[in-house]
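User: Let's play a game. I give you a shape written as C-alpha coordinates, and you guess the letters that built it. Ready? Here's round one.
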Protein backbone atom coordinates (compact mmCIF):
# COMPACT_ATOMS: atom_id res chain seq x y z
CA UNK A 1 0.00 0.00 0.00
CA UNK A 2 1.53 3.34 -1.01
CA UNK A 3 1.82 6.01 1.66
CA UNK A 4 -0.85 8.68 1.85
CA UNK A 5 0.16 12.03 0.38
CA UNK A 6 -0.60 14.11 3.48
CA UNK A 7 -0.55 17.43 1.64
CA UNK A 8 -3.08 16.27 -0.96
CA UNK A 9 -5.22 14.72 1.79
CA UNK A 10 -5.31 17.87 3.94
CA UNK A 11 -5.60 20.29 0.99
CA UNK A 12 -8.68 18.38 -0.20
CA UNK A 13 -10.22 18.40 3.28
CA UNK A 14 -9.84 22.17 3.57
CA UNK A 15 -10.99 22.85 0.00
CA UNK A 16 -14.20 20.81 0.38
CA UNK A 17 -15.07 21.96 3.91
CA UNK A 18 -18.46 23.65 4.26
CA UNK A 19 -17.82 27.38 4.52
CA UNK A 20 -20.79 27.98 6.84
CA UNK A 21 -18.84 26.52 9.75
CA UNK A 22 -21.35 23.74 10.39
CA UNK A 23 -21.37 20.12 9.33
CA UNK A 24 -24.03 18.51 7.22
CA UNK A 25 -23.55 14.95 8.45
CA UNK A 26 -21.09 14.15 5.66
CA UNK A 27 -17.88 13.67 7.63
CA UNK A 28 -17.24 10.10 6.40
CA UNK A 29 -17.86 11.09 2.78
CA UNK A 30 -15.55 14.12 2.92
CA UNK A 31 -12.75 12.27 4.72
CA UNK A 32 -13.08 9.34 2.28
CA UNK A 33 -12.80 11.77 -0.66
CA UNK A 34 -9.76 13.41 0.93
CA UNK A 35 -8.13 10.01 1.52
CA UNK A 36 -8.71 9.24 -2.17
CA UNK A 37 -7.11 12.56 -3.12
CA UNK A 38 -4.15 11.48 -1.00
CA UNK A 39 -3.87 8.13 -2.78
CA UNK A 40 -6.01 5.68 -0.77
CA UNK A 41 -8.90 4.29 -2.80
CA UNK A 42 -10.28 1.06 -1.34
CA UNK A 43 -12.88 -0.82 -3.34
CA UNK A 44 -15.26 -0.72 -0.35
CA UNK A 45 -15.45 1.40 2.77
CA UNK A 46 -17.56 1.62 5.91
CA UNK A 47 -20.76 3.62 5.91
CA UNK A 48 -20.45 4.91 9.47
CA UNK A 49 -17.66 7.25 10.52
CA UNK A 50 -17.11 5.33 13.76
CA UNK A 51 -16.12 2.21 11.77
CA UNK A 52 -13.19 3.66 9.81
CA UNK A 53 -10.38 2.47 12.12
CA UNK A 54 -9.51 -0.81 10.39
CA UNK A 55 -9.60 0.88 6.97
CA UNK A 56 -7.09 3.49 8.15
CA UNK A 57 -4.80 0.76 9.43
CA UNK A 58 -4.99 -0.93 6.00
CA UNK A 59 -4.03 2.40 4.44
CA UNK A 60 -0.82 2.41 6.47
CA UNK A 61 -1.90 4.64 9.35
CA UNK A 62 -0.70 3.80 12.87
CA UNK A 63 -2.61 4.37 16.08
CA UNK A 64 -1.45 7.22 18.31
CA UNK A 65 -1.68 6.68 22.03
CA UNK A 66 -3.59 9.64 23.46
CA UNK A 67 -4.10 9.44 27.20
CA UNK A 68 -4.79 13.14 27.80
CA UNK A 69 -6.49 15.07 25.00
CA UNK A 70 -5.35 18.40 26.44
CA UNK A 71 -1.69 17.30 26.20
CA UNK A 72 -1.98 15.71 22.74
CA UNK A 73 -0.34 17.68 19.93
CA UNK A 74 -1.87 16.64 16.60
CA UNK A 75 0.30 16.43 13.50
CA UNK A 76 -0.75 17.30 9.97
CA UNK A 77 -2.49 14.25 8.53
CA UNK A 78 -3.74 12.82 11.83
CA UNK A 79 -7.23 11.32 11.58
CA UNK A 80 -9.52 10.87 14.58
CA UNK A 81 -12.33 8.31 14.59
CA UNK A 82 -14.88 9.11 17.29
CA UNK A 83 -17.54 6.71 18.47
CA UNK A 84 -21.27 7.43 18.58
CA UNK A 85 -23.11 9.78 20.90
CA UNK A 86 -26.74 9.58 21.92
CA UNK A 87 -27.59 11.97 19.07
CA UNK A 88 -25.13 10.69 16.44
CA UNK A 89 -25.24 6.93 15.95
CA UNK A 90 -22.70 7.05 13.10
CA UNK A 91 -19.99 8.70 15.19
CA UNK A 92 -17.53 11.09 13.57
CA UNK A 93 -14.30 11.15 11.58
CA UNK A 94 -12.02 14.14 11.07
CA UNK A 95 -8.56 15.00 9.80
CA UNK A 96 -6.03 17.54 11.05
CA UNK A 97 -4.61 19.88 8.41
CA UNK A 98 -1.81 21.31 10.56
CA UNK A 99 -4.03 24.08 11.92
CA UNK A 100 -7.58 22.77 12.40
CA UNK A 101 -9.61 19.61 12.67
CA UNK A 102 -11.74 19.28 9.53
CA UNK A 103 -14.50 16.85 8.64
CA UNK A 104 -17.17 18.26 6.34
CA UNK A 105 -16.52 21.64 8.03
CA UNK A 106 -13.63 23.37 9.79
CA UNK A 107 -14.06 22.65 13.51
CA UNK A 108 -13.22 26.04 14.97
CA UNK A 109 -13.79 24.84 18.54
CA UNK A 110 -11.12 22.14 18.38
CA UNK A 111 -11.16 18.37 18.60
CA UNK A 112 -14.80 17.76 19.51
CA UNK A 113 -17.09 18.46 16.53
CA UNK A 114 -20.16 19.57 18.45
CA UNK A 115 -21.94 19.93 21.78
CA UNK A 116 -22.98 16.27 22.15
CA UNK A 117 -19.37 15.17 21.63
CA UNK A 118 -18.04 17.78 24.07
CA UNK A 119 -20.64 16.78 26.67
CA UNK A 120 -20.44 12.98 26.26
CA UNK A 121 -16.74 12.68 25.28
CA UNK A 122 -17.17 9.29 23.56
CA UNK A 123 -14.24 6.95 22.94
CA UNK A 124 -11.96 7.88 20.07
CA UNK A 125 -8.76 6.69 18.40
CA UNK A 126 -6.26 8.89 16.59
CA UNK A 127 -4.46 7.49 13.54
CA UNK A 128 -1.27 8.89 11.98
CA UNK A 129 0.00 8.25 8.44
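Assistant: Ready! My guess for every position:
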Amino acid sequence: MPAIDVDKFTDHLREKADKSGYGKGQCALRVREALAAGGYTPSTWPRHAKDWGSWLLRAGFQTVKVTDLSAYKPLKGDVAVIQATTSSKSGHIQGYDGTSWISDFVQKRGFWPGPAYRDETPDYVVYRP
